[in-house]
Structure prediction request, 153 residues.
Amino acid sequence: MASTSTWTPPPCYYAPAYSPAQLQKKLEPIWEAGSTGHEWDLSQRHRYVNGEPYKDFNKKTAGEGYWWDSFIPDGKESARIGEAYAKGKADETPSCGVKYLRSSGDGAYALKATVTWKINWTGTGVNGQQKLPDGQFGADQDVIVQEIQSINR
Prediction:
């Protein structure tokens, strides 16, 4: 399938990615490995499994929508927005990230993220473009920056 427009994705974006069963298959091995830390894993289990706010990955609504994830233009999935420093990349700018110039100390930075969409579609047997409802979703999040890294060029 090829695009019918000149649209190109931004440096990073969110898009529908997983059915409830696919999200479960992706997250449970991460939680079992313990690589993201006990507190994070527990908070994610509460969020997606225990009913705070979703129960059992929201499987009761399977087929009605998808869980979204972040992506970068080459199609490679990104577990989180941002990119860790890697040797040899000092002259490159991460494709997607938030830049903090100093630690948040004993506090936190306020971050507000919003996803907005406007969608038209066409299909076989449909006359002209069909408009889907516009939408917007956002949330505030306190971000604790424990340390920063500097690159001297």
Q: What stands out?
A: Strands lie at 13-18, 67-71, 109-117, 120-121, 130-131, 135-143. The chain has two domains: 10-91, 98-119+130-153. DSSP finds two helices and six strands in the chain. Residues 98-119+130-153 form one domain.
